[in-house]
Amino acid sequence: MKLNIAVLPGDGAGPEVTAQAVKVLKAIAMEFNHVFNFTEGLIGATAINQTGNPLPEETLDLCENADAVLFGAIGNTSYDLDPNAKIRPEQGLLGLRKSLGLYTNIRPVIAYEELLNKSSLKKKQIKDTNILIYRELTGGIYFGEKLLSDDGNKASDICEYNRFEIERIAHLAFKAAQSRKRKLALVDKANVLESSRLWRRVVQELAPQYPDVTVDYLFIDNAAMELIINPRQFDVILTENMFGDILSEEASVIVGSIGLLASASIGEKHAMFEPIHGAYTKGANKGIANPIASILSAAMLLEHFGLDDEAALVREGVDKSIKLHITTPDLNTKYDHITTTKVGDFIEDFINNPDETNLN
Amino acid sequence: MKLNIAVLPGDGAGPEVTAQAVKVLKAIAMEFNHVFNFTEGLIGATAINQTGNPLPEETLDLCENADAVLFGAIGNTSYDLDPNAKIRPEQGLLGLRKSLGLYTNIRPVIAYEELLNKSSLKKKQIKDTNILIYRELTGGIYFGEKLLSDDGNKASDICEYNRFEIERIAHLAFKAAQSRKRKLALVDKANVLESSRLWRRVVQELAPQYPDVTVDYLFIDNAAMELIINPRQFDVILTENMFGDILSEEASVIVGSIGLLASASIGEKHAMFEPIHGAYTKGANKGIANPIASILSAAMLLEHFGLDDEAALVREGVDKSIKLHITTPDLNTKYDHITTTKVGDFIEDFINNPDETNLN
Ligand SMILES: CC(C)[C@H](C(=O)O)[C@@H](O)C(=O)O
Ligand SMILES: CC(C)[C@H](C(=O)O)[C@@H](O)C(=O)O
How far apart are the CA of B245 and the centre of ligand 2, in A? Predict the structure, then answer.
């Protein structure tokens, strides 16, 4: 298969971790005789620094013409602490999601047997957790009109949803549930929000089309608690943009490190693959950022194109690195000095030579 | 002291738990020679059933003329599952918060030594956690304009904040931090929301007035993770209405049961005290609802009026009930059949006779 992949390393530790994912994809291409072409583009704070624009025209062109986008991370503390900045790194990511129509963000939360003791949660609580979060990604309060009064004393954001925006992702979530444990949990705040009531109404209306799927309805405050108390109750979680942002980052505590969570952002025409972690500015350029989220995002990319054996090999490599403690310090208490690059190298070696790779 | 207390038991298990708090307050009045008058009012689904209105005029009058309001719980599954209902129980609670101007909701999250093993989190992670959440309660997306298009295909909610709404609660949060560990964490989503940027700007502007307080800024997604990974990093958390709702219910996992979390809702003229849990419809009328959140809310009521010795005695009674396992099934694995009423009776007995109370 031939794939043109746009690579957007972005900010902070983004470039380091993305480099490992590219390394892994190159090894896969070699091993399976695919042709993957990688072209880099600027985005985020890095793009602002170099072009004044968090999402330069060329980057958008690149992504629109690529078969898939591999995204690193975005954000920078100096912008975070400057609420007056009019141009912000995140506009790059949000602009890209919107322009490419990536309305469905899929975030798997899977507890690794070997990492159960790394979690803040008790082992027996999280064992066998396997959740798929379907987060709506191009609507809601992220994209509704934002206003700041002229005197700067009043600010507002609109959370708006249209029925079709809910329907299209809900169908995907129902279908995902059908191929899993046939449970869908809608998370909203329908006891307070009109937009949440639209979500609930639409999901209730679609449910009869999926009679084999059991639907639960949870309020976001309750869901934030249940996710920790009893994560195993969940199979597929469907939710709007902001609640999905919160729940998916919260869910990282189950897995033991946010450096493990990958995601796929899918639209009708385009697809982007991104770790759910941020730029991790304070860990950048130290070789300590965990590349696994980025590498697993690459695995999701492969799966998106039906390259299941290829993806399985990547996942095996990741499993093996975890089993042998070839992991960055967020997970590793056994060995020192296992760097971002070293983890990438290990998984690359494994792909080249699945039967022989060990700690080297 | 003479206090007129409006009692709003509300829905589900609200009446059961509130009855225990009233019992405890009566014991305190007796012991310390206070005069507490209790008058009940209707609210929520119960009020809709009886009057058609979730917040009847008489209830509002009652609360406006009371020195304090003791609130039970609100909500009903049949409304939760009916997104088309125009009249909803929650309108009672939200209407009351707004009418009484209760803009500051204070939610303490304190890990009980004896309950550390009840939490889903590992003991060493949560030991000594002591957080005060300052949640804005009368603004934001809860109260902004809500629209549903005529064809029912589009719905929206506005999240709006004015500078003064942020300033008044921020001052209170800063002051609370000064009397504690001098750490304030603002939780927002300033990388995306205009309203969050106003929060961040205002807090940054006020910070120099509190030079002894260290201020941290966290995005809500990150905070939802950090609260679980490392709750001890937090002292006072300040946040807007919706994020506060989510974080405070999530925080219940630290304490071991949502049935333990009390809150005070304070305005310029009025004050209301409410457990943070909901109506717990499926546990209602079974004697299994934990009354401690309601009883601790009564303790916060006493503190609000400077009755610190009285509050301390209530807290001692709660501590003792926990130590002796006189607790409802959410916490109790030692004894069966410790009902809601039995817990209330125990704490009442303790107040009457602090030196002699034991399991009877
Ligand atoms: C960087 C930020 C804008 C982004 C979001 O809020 O969507 C991130 O937190 C994420 O989850 O992908
Ligand atoms: C019942 C509901 C409207 C309420 C809220 O969302 O504020 C509750 O969850 C709370 O936290 O007090």
Answer: 6
Return the pLDDT at B92.
98
Chain B nearest CA to A187, separation (Å): 12
Work out the minimum CA distance from A7 to partner chain B, whole angstroms: 23
Tell me which residue has its CA closest to atom 6 in ligand 2: B245
- Ligand 2, pocket-test mutation among B69, B71, B90, most atoms within 8 A of CB: B90
**Is-same-fold flag (B1-102+267-360; B111-257)?**
yes
pLDDT tens, residue by residue, A128-184: 999 999 999 999 999 999 999 999 999 999 999 999 999 999 999 999 999 999 999
Residue nearest to atom 6 of ligand 1 (CA): A245
- Domain A107-257's class? alpha beta
Question: What are the CB-based long-range contacts (under 8 Å, 24+) for B325-329?
Answer: B326/B359, B327/B290, B327/B292, B328/B259, B328/B287, B328/B288, B328/B289, B328/B290, B328/B291, B329/B288
CATH-assigned architecture of domain A1-102+267-360: 3-Layer(aba) Sandwich (3.40)
Q: What is chain B's percent helix, strand, coil content, to nearest 5? A: 50, 20, 35
Tens digit of pLDDT for each residue in B244-292?
A: 999 999 999 999 899 999 999 999 999 999 999 999 999 999 999 999 9
Q: How far is the CA of B350 from the centre of ligand 2 (A)?
A: 32
Domain B111-257, CATH class in plain words = alpha beta
Domain boundaries defined on chain A: 1-102+267-360, 107-257
